[in-house]
Amino acid sequence: MHLLDRQRALAMAPLWRLGFRSFFLAGALFALLTVALWAAVLHGAPGLAVPGGMLAWHRHEMPFGFGLAIIAGFLLTAVQNWTGRPGLNGRPLIMLFGVWLAARLAWFAPVPLAVLIALQLAFTSLFITQMARQLIAARQRNNYPILLVLSLLALCQSLTLAGLAMGDDGWQRRGALAALWLIAVMLSLIGGRVIPFFTQRGLGRTEAFAAHPWLDRLLLVCGVLVAVLFASGHNLQANPWLATPFIVLSALHGQRLWRWHLRGIWRVPLLWSLHLGYAWLLVASLGMAAWHLGWLTQPSLANHALAVGAMGGLILAMMARVSLGHTGRALQPPKAMAWAFGLLNLGALIRVSAGSSWLWLAAICWGAAFALFVVYYAPILCRARVDGHPG
After folding, report:
1. Cα–Cα distance for residue pair 39/265, rounded to 1 Å
2. Which superfamily, per CATH, for 15-205+214-382?
3. Per the confidence metrics, is the pTM higher than 0.90?
Protein backbone atom coordinates (compact mmCIF):
# COMPACT_ATOMS: atom_id res chain seq x y z
CA MET A 1 0.00 0.00 0.00
CA HIS A 2 1.25 3.52 -0.83
CA LEU A 3 2.56 5.42 2.22
CA LEU A 4 -0.02 8.22 1.90
CA ASP A 5 -2.84 5.70 1.52
CA ARG A 6 -1.61 3.87 4.62
CA GLN A 7 -1.46 7.06 6.66
CA ARG A 8 -4.91 8.09 5.53
CA ALA A 9 -6.34 4.65 6.41
CA LEU A 10 -4.73 4.71 9.85
CA ALA A 11 -6.27 8.13 10.48
CA MET A 12 -9.79 6.75 9.98
CA ALA A 13 -11.91 5.40 12.79
CA PRO A 14 -11.41 1.59 12.63
CA LEU A 15 -15.13 1.02 12.04
CA TRP A 16 -14.87 2.67 8.62
CA ARG A 17 -11.63 1.16 7.35
CA LEU A 18 -13.28 -1.79 5.57
CA GLY A 19 -16.86 -2.78 4.82
CA PHE A 20 -17.03 -5.89 7.00
CA ARG A 21 -16.71 -3.90 10.23
CA SER A 22 -19.78 -1.67 10.07
CA PHE A 23 -22.02 -4.01 8.07
CA PHE A 24 -21.28 -7.09 10.18
CA LEU A 25 -21.95 -5.26 13.42
CA ALA A 26 -25.06 -3.45 12.22
CA GLY A 27 -26.33 -6.54 10.38
CA ALA A 28 -26.06 -8.68 13.50
CA LEU A 29 -27.90 -6.08 15.58
CA PHE A 30 -30.53 -5.82 12.88
CA ALA A 31 -30.98 -9.62 12.82
CA LEU A 32 -31.50 -9.62 16.58
CA LEU A 33 -34.03 -6.77 16.64
CA THR A 34 -36.06 -7.66 13.56
CA VAL A 35 -36.66 -11.29 14.49
CA ALA A 36 -37.54 -10.26 18.05
CA LEU A 37 -40.10 -7.78 16.70
CA TRP A 38 -41.53 -10.27 14.19
CA ALA A 39 -41.82 -13.00 16.83
CA ALA A 40 -43.63 -10.59 19.16
CA VAL A 41 -46.13 -9.78 16.39
CA LEU A 42 -46.69 -13.49 15.67
CA HIS A 43 -47.48 -14.03 19.35
CA GLY A 44 -50.10 -11.30 19.56
CA ALA A 45 -48.24 -8.06 20.09
CA PRO A 46 -49.68 -5.14 18.11
CA GLY A 47 -47.76 -4.58 14.90
CA LEU A 48 -46.25 -1.25 13.97
CA ALA A 49 -47.74 0.86 11.23
CA VAL A 50 -45.56 0.06 8.23
CA PRO A 51 -46.40 0.14 4.51
CA GLY A 52 -48.09 -3.09 3.49
CA GLY A 53 -48.19 -4.41 7.06
CA MET A 54 -45.67 -6.31 9.15
CA LEU A 55 -45.61 -9.34 6.85
CA ALA A 56 -44.48 -7.15 3.92
CA TRP A 57 -41.79 -5.65 6.14
CA HIS A 58 -40.58 -9.07 7.32
CA ARG A 59 -40.51 -10.49 3.79
CA HIS A 60 -38.44 -7.61 2.49
CA GLU A 61 -36.10 -6.96 5.38
CA MET A 62 -34.77 -10.46 6.00
CA PRO A 63 -33.26 -10.94 2.51
CA PHE A 64 -32.72 -7.31 1.50
CA GLY A 65 -32.06 -5.69 4.87
CA PHE A 66 -30.19 -8.36 6.81
CA GLY A 67 -28.90 -10.74 4.14
CA LEU A 68 -27.74 -8.09 1.68
CA ALA A 69 -26.02 -6.10 4.44
CA ILE A 70 -23.80 -9.04 5.40
CA ILE A 71 -23.15 -9.87 1.74
CA ALA A 72 -22.10 -6.24 1.22
CA GLY A 73 -19.78 -6.34 4.21
CA PHE A 74 -18.13 -9.52 2.99
CA LEU A 75 -17.81 -8.60 -0.69
CA LEU A 76 -16.67 -5.01 -0.13
CA THR A 77 -13.85 -6.49 1.93
CA ALA A 78 -13.05 -9.51 -0.26
CA VAL A 79 -12.88 -7.45 -3.47
CA GLN A 80 -9.78 -5.76 -2.09
CA ASN A 81 -7.98 -9.11 -2.00
CA TRP A 82 -9.37 -10.17 -5.39
CA THR A 83 -8.31 -7.03 -7.24
CA GLY A 84 -5.31 -5.79 -5.26
CA ARG A 85 -6.97 -2.37 -5.03
CA PRO A 86 -8.21 -0.60 -1.87
CA GLY A 87 -11.73 -1.46 -0.83
CA LEU A 88 -14.42 1.06 -0.02
CA ASN A 89 -13.53 2.96 3.16
CA GLY A 90 -13.81 6.28 4.89
CA ARG A 91 -16.46 8.77 3.79
CA PRO A 92 -17.77 6.73 0.80
CA LEU A 93 -18.29 3.73 3.10
CA ILE A 94 -20.02 5.93 5.68
CA MET A 95 -22.33 7.26 2.98
CA LEU A 96 -23.21 3.78 1.71
CA PHE A 97 -23.84 2.58 5.25
CA GLY A 98 -25.97 5.67 5.86
CA VAL A 99 -28.17 4.81 2.88
CA TRP A 100 -28.59 1.24 4.21
CA LEU A 101 -29.54 2.55 7.67
CA ALA A 102 -31.92 5.15 6.25
CA ALA A 103 -33.63 2.44 4.19
CA ARG A 104 -34.17 0.37 7.35
CA LEU A 105 -35.56 3.28 9.35
CA ALA A 106 -37.76 4.55 6.51
CA TRP A 107 -40.23 1.70 7.12
CA PHE A 108 -41.16 3.30 10.43
CA ALA A 109 -40.90 6.96 9.40
CA PRO A 110 -43.76 9.11 8.08
CA VAL A 111 -42.32 9.29 4.56
CA PRO A 112 -44.10 8.72 1.24
CA LEU A 113 -43.97 5.17 -0.10
CA ALA A 114 -41.97 6.43 -3.08
CA VAL A 115 -39.22 7.64 -0.72
CA LEU A 116 -39.14 4.28 1.06
CA ILE A 117 -38.82 2.41 -2.23
CA ALA A 118 -36.18 4.82 -3.54
CA LEU A 119 -34.03 4.29 -0.45
CA GLN A 120 -34.25 0.49 -0.69
CA LEU A 121 -33.21 0.51 -4.33
CA ALA A 122 -30.56 3.17 -3.78
CA PHE A 123 -28.55 1.03 -1.38
CA THR A 124 -28.70 -2.03 -3.63
CA SER A 125 -27.79 -0.01 -6.72
CA LEU A 126 -24.88 1.80 -5.08
CA PHE A 127 -23.48 -1.45 -3.68
CA ILE A 128 -23.69 -3.27 -7.02
CA THR A 129 -22.18 -0.28 -8.85
CA GLN A 130 -19.22 -0.24 -6.48
CA MET A 131 -18.64 -3.98 -6.91
CA ALA A 132 -18.96 -3.76 -10.70
CA ARG A 133 -16.59 -0.81 -10.90
CA GLN A 134 -13.84 -2.65 -9.01
CA LEU A 135 -14.28 -6.06 -10.64
CA ILE A 136 -14.57 -4.77 -14.20
CA ALA A 137 -11.62 -2.38 -13.78
CA ALA A 138 -9.49 -5.31 -12.62
CA ARG A 139 -10.96 -7.61 -15.32
CA GLN A 140 -11.93 -10.14 -12.67
CA ARG A 141 -14.00 -12.30 -15.01
CA ASN A 142 -14.00 -15.24 -12.64
CA ASN A 143 -16.01 -13.07 -10.24
CA TYR A 144 -18.57 -11.89 -12.79
CA PRO A 145 -21.04 -14.59 -11.60
CA ILE A 146 -21.20 -12.63 -8.35
CA LEU A 147 -22.27 -9.53 -10.30
CA LEU A 148 -24.90 -11.66 -12.07
CA VAL A 149 -26.39 -12.88 -8.80
CA LEU A 150 -26.33 -9.38 -7.29
CA SER A 151 -28.10 -7.97 -10.37
CA LEU A 152 -30.76 -10.67 -10.16
CA LEU A 153 -31.19 -9.85 -6.47
CA ALA A 154 -31.83 -6.24 -7.45
CA LEU A 155 -34.52 -7.37 -9.91
CA CYS A 156 -36.14 -9.49 -7.19
CA GLN A 157 -36.14 -6.52 -4.86
CA SER A 158 -37.79 -4.43 -7.57
CA LEU A 159 -40.46 -7.12 -7.97
CA THR A 160 -41.05 -7.20 -4.21
CA LEU A 161 -41.30 -3.42 -3.95
CA ALA A 162 -43.56 -3.23 -7.01
CA GLY A 163 -45.86 -5.66 -5.24
CA LEU A 164 -45.74 -3.45 -2.16
CA ALA A 165 -46.63 -0.35 -4.20
CA MET A 166 -49.54 -2.10 -5.95
CA GLY A 167 -50.75 -4.03 -2.92
CA ASP A 168 -50.06 -7.31 -4.73
CA ASP A 169 -49.19 -9.98 -2.16
CA GLY A 170 -48.27 -12.48 -4.89
CA TRP A 171 -45.57 -10.26 -6.35
CA GLN A 172 -44.13 -9.60 -2.91
CA ARG A 173 -43.99 -13.30 -2.13
CA ARG A 174 -42.46 -14.21 -5.48
CA GLY A 175 -39.77 -11.53 -5.22
CA ALA A 176 -38.85 -12.34 -1.62
CA LEU A 177 -38.66 -16.11 -2.15
CA ALA A 178 -36.67 -15.74 -5.37
CA ALA A 179 -34.27 -13.46 -3.51
CA LEU A 180 -33.92 -15.98 -0.70
CA TRP A 181 -32.89 -18.71 -3.15
CA LEU A 182 -30.52 -16.30 -4.90
CA ILE A 183 -28.89 -15.68 -1.54
CA ALA A 184 -28.54 -19.47 -1.38
CA VAL A 185 -26.67 -19.24 -4.70
CA MET A 186 -24.41 -16.56 -3.25
CA LEU A 187 -23.80 -18.66 -0.14
CA SER A 188 -22.92 -21.57 -2.41
CA LEU A 189 -20.54 -19.44 -4.50
CA ILE A 190 -18.75 -17.98 -1.50
CA GLY A 191 -18.93 -21.16 0.56
CA GLY A 192 -17.43 -23.18 -2.26
CA ARG A 193 -14.38 -20.93 -2.14
CA VAL A 194 -13.84 -20.37 1.56
CA ILE A 195 -15.11 -23.49 3.37
CA PRO A 196 -12.54 -25.90 1.88
CA PHE A 197 -9.81 -23.26 2.30
CA PHE A 198 -10.78 -22.52 5.91
CA THR A 199 -11.02 -26.27 6.60
CA GLN A 200 -7.56 -26.86 5.17
CA ARG A 201 -6.06 -24.00 7.19
CA GLY A 202 -8.00 -24.76 10.35
CA LEU A 203 -6.78 -28.37 10.45
CA GLY A 204 -3.24 -27.58 9.36
CA ARG A 205 -3.44 -29.63 6.16
CA THR A 206 -0.83 -28.95 3.52
CA GLU A 207 -2.77 -30.39 0.57
CA ALA A 208 -5.69 -28.42 -0.84
CA PHE A 209 -9.05 -29.90 -1.75
CA ALA A 210 -9.38 -30.73 -5.44
CA ALA A 211 -11.28 -28.14 -7.49
CA HIS A 212 -14.40 -29.17 -9.43
CA PRO A 213 -15.32 -26.24 -11.71
CA TRP A 214 -18.12 -28.20 -13.41
CA LEU A 215 -19.84 -28.72 -10.06
CA ASP A 216 -19.59 -25.02 -9.24
CA ARG A 217 -21.07 -24.05 -12.62
CA LEU A 218 -23.90 -26.55 -12.31
CA LEU A 219 -24.75 -25.27 -8.84
CA LEU A 220 -24.85 -21.72 -10.20
CA VAL A 221 -27.07 -22.60 -13.17
CA CYS A 222 -29.41 -24.78 -11.15
CA GLY A 223 -29.66 -22.24 -8.32
CA VAL A 224 -30.47 -19.38 -10.68
CA LEU A 225 -33.07 -21.57 -12.43
CA VAL A 226 -34.78 -22.25 -9.10
CA ALA A 227 -34.84 -18.52 -8.32
CA VAL A 228 -36.33 -17.73 -11.74
CA LEU A 229 -39.04 -20.32 -11.16
CA PHE A 230 -39.90 -18.62 -7.87
CA ALA A 231 -39.95 -15.16 -9.45
CA SER A 232 -42.24 -16.39 -12.23
CA GLY A 233 -44.58 -18.00 -9.72
CA HIS A 234 -44.05 -21.58 -10.88
CA ASN A 235 -42.45 -22.74 -7.63
CA LEU A 236 -45.41 -21.51 -5.58
CA GLN A 237 -47.57 -24.48 -6.60
CA ALA A 238 -46.51 -28.10 -6.05
CA ASN A 239 -45.52 -29.85 -9.27
CA PRO A 240 -43.61 -33.17 -9.33
CA TRP A 241 -41.59 -32.05 -12.36
CA LEU A 242 -40.32 -29.02 -10.45
CA ALA A 243 -38.76 -31.31 -7.85
CA THR A 244 -36.00 -32.05 -10.39
CA PRO A 245 -33.80 -28.94 -9.92
CA PHE A 246 -34.07 -29.30 -6.15
CA ILE A 247 -33.02 -32.95 -6.35
CA VAL A 248 -30.03 -31.90 -8.45
CA LEU A 249 -29.17 -29.16 -5.94
CA SER A 250 -29.43 -31.66 -3.10
CA ALA A 251 -27.05 -34.07 -4.84
CA LEU A 252 -24.51 -31.32 -5.58
CA HIS A 253 -24.60 -29.89 -2.04
CA GLY A 254 -24.32 -33.40 -0.64
CA GLN A 255 -21.29 -34.15 -2.79
CA ARG A 256 -19.59 -30.98 -1.62
CA LEU A 257 -20.23 -31.77 2.05
CA TRP A 258 -18.91 -35.30 1.59
CA ARG A 259 -15.73 -34.06 -0.12
CA TRP A 260 -15.09 -31.37 2.48
CA HIS A 261 -15.75 -33.53 5.54
CA LEU A 262 -12.82 -34.38 7.77
CA ARG A 263 -13.18 -35.77 11.29
CA GLY A 264 -11.16 -32.97 12.77
CA ILE A 265 -13.73 -30.30 11.93
CA TRP A 266 -15.89 -31.29 14.92
CA ARG A 267 -13.17 -30.14 17.30
CA VAL A 268 -13.03 -26.63 15.78
CA PRO A 269 -16.11 -24.37 16.27
CA LEU A 270 -15.12 -22.10 13.37
CA LEU A 271 -15.24 -25.15 11.09
CA TRP A 272 -18.20 -27.22 12.27
CA SER A 273 -20.34 -24.09 12.27
CA LEU A 274 -19.55 -23.52 8.59
CA HIS A 275 -20.20 -27.15 7.65
CA LEU A 276 -23.50 -27.25 9.58
CA GLY A 277 -24.59 -23.98 8.00
CA TYR A 278 -23.85 -25.35 4.55
CA ALA A 279 -25.70 -28.58 5.39
CA TRP A 280 -28.91 -26.53 5.76
CA LEU A 281 -28.67 -25.77 2.02
CA LEU A 282 -28.98 -29.51 1.47
CA VAL A 283 -31.90 -29.76 3.93
CA ALA A 284 -33.74 -26.85 2.28
CA SER A 285 -33.29 -28.31 -1.21
CA LEU A 286 -34.50 -31.73 -0.06
CA GLY A 287 -37.46 -30.09 1.65
CA MET A 288 -38.56 -28.28 -1.51
CA ALA A 289 -38.17 -31.49 -3.53
CA ALA A 290 -40.28 -33.33 -0.95
CA TRP A 291 -42.99 -30.65 -1.11
CA HIS A 292 -43.19 -30.78 -4.90
CA LEU A 293 -43.48 -34.57 -4.69
CA GLY A 294 -46.29 -34.33 -2.13
CA TRP A 295 -44.26 -35.67 0.80
CA LEU A 296 -44.21 -32.38 2.74
CA THR A 297 -47.28 -30.30 3.51
CA GLN A 298 -45.72 -26.84 3.84
CA PRO A 299 -43.05 -25.31 1.59
CA SER A 300 -42.44 -22.67 4.28
CA LEU A 301 -40.59 -25.31 6.31
CA ALA A 302 -38.05 -25.74 3.54
CA ASN A 303 -37.81 -21.99 2.96
CA HIS A 304 -37.19 -21.38 6.66
CA ALA A 305 -34.57 -24.13 6.71
CA LEU A 306 -32.85 -21.98 4.11
CA ALA A 307 -33.51 -18.62 5.79
CA VAL A 308 -32.73 -19.58 9.39
CA GLY A 309 -30.37 -22.53 9.08
CA ALA A 310 -28.39 -21.78 5.92
CA MET A 311 -28.51 -17.99 5.67
CA GLY A 312 -28.41 -17.37 9.42
CA GLY A 313 -25.99 -20.19 10.18
CA LEU A 314 -23.49 -19.49 7.42
CA ILE A 315 -23.64 -15.74 8.01
CA LEU A 316 -22.92 -16.11 11.72
CA ALA A 317 -20.07 -18.57 11.11
CA MET A 318 -18.57 -16.46 8.31
CA MET A 319 -18.74 -13.25 10.35
CA ALA A 320 -17.02 -14.94 13.28
CA ARG A 321 -14.17 -16.25 11.10
CA VAL A 322 -13.74 -13.25 8.78
CA SER A 323 -13.80 -10.70 11.62
CA LEU A 324 -10.87 -12.42 13.33
CA GLY A 325 -8.84 -12.88 10.15
CA HIS A 326 -9.30 -9.33 8.87
CA THR A 327 -8.42 -7.76 12.23
CA GLY A 328 -5.14 -9.69 12.48
CA ARG A 329 -6.25 -11.82 15.40
CA ALA A 330 -5.65 -15.49 16.06
CA LEU A 331 -8.38 -17.70 14.64
CA GLN A 332 -9.64 -18.59 18.09
CA PRO A 333 -13.14 -17.18 18.69
CA PRO A 334 -14.44 -16.43 22.19
CA LYS A 335 -15.63 -19.65 23.80
CA ALA A 336 -19.16 -18.27 23.94
CA MET A 337 -19.34 -18.38 20.15
CA ALA A 338 -19.57 -22.18 20.20
CA TRP A 339 -22.80 -21.65 22.17
CA ALA A 340 -23.91 -19.06 19.61
CA PHE A 341 -23.37 -21.50 16.74
CA GLY A 342 -25.20 -24.24 18.62
CA LEU A 343 -28.13 -21.97 19.51
CA LEU A 344 -28.49 -20.80 15.92
CA ASN A 345 -28.68 -24.36 14.62
CA LEU A 346 -31.03 -25.36 17.44
CA GLY A 347 -33.30 -22.45 16.53
CA ALA A 348 -33.34 -23.57 12.90
CA LEU A 349 -34.21 -27.12 13.95
CA ILE A 350 -37.06 -25.89 16.14
CA ARG A 351 -38.35 -23.59 13.38
CA VAL A 352 -38.64 -26.38 10.82
CA SER A 353 -39.66 -29.30 13.03
CA ALA A 354 -41.77 -27.94 15.89
CA GLY A 355 -45.26 -26.46 15.70
CA SER A 356 -46.10 -22.78 15.54
CA SER A 357 -46.46 -22.64 19.31
CA TRP A 358 -42.69 -23.06 19.56
CA LEU A 359 -41.74 -20.17 17.29
CA TRP A 360 -40.92 -18.06 20.34
CA LEU A 361 -38.18 -20.51 21.33
CA ALA A 362 -36.69 -20.51 17.83
CA ALA A 363 -36.67 -16.69 17.94
CA ILE A 364 -34.94 -16.71 21.33
CA CYS A 365 -32.24 -19.05 20.01
CA TRP A 366 -31.71 -16.83 16.96
CA GLY A 367 -31.61 -13.65 19.06
CA ALA A 368 -29.25 -15.12 21.65
CA ALA A 369 -26.86 -16.29 18.93
CA PHE A 370 -26.58 -12.87 17.32
CA ALA A 371 -26.52 -11.13 20.70
CA LEU A 372 -23.46 -13.17 21.64
CA PHE A 373 -21.80 -12.13 18.40
CA VAL A 374 -22.52 -8.46 19.07
CA VAL A 375 -21.28 -8.60 22.67
CA TYR A 376 -18.02 -10.35 21.88
CA TYR A 377 -17.25 -8.96 18.43
CA ALA A 378 -18.27 -5.30 18.77
CA PRO A 379 -14.96 -4.46 20.51
CA ILE A 380 -13.05 -6.37 17.80
CA LEU A 381 -14.84 -4.62 14.95
CA CYS A 382 -14.54 -1.16 16.50
CA ARG A 383 -10.81 -1.40 17.27
CA ALA A 384 -7.76 -1.29 15.00
CA ARG A 385 -6.05 -4.44 13.79
CA VAL A 386 -3.69 -5.88 16.37
CA ASP A 387 -0.85 -6.16 13.83
CA GLY A 388 -0.84 -2.46 12.92
CA HIS A 389 -2.15 -3.06 9.39
CA PRO A 390 -4.52 -0.27 8.28
CA GLY A 391 -7.36 -2.66 7.32
Report:
1. 33
2. Cytochrome c oxidase-like, subunit I domain (1.20.210.10)
3. yes
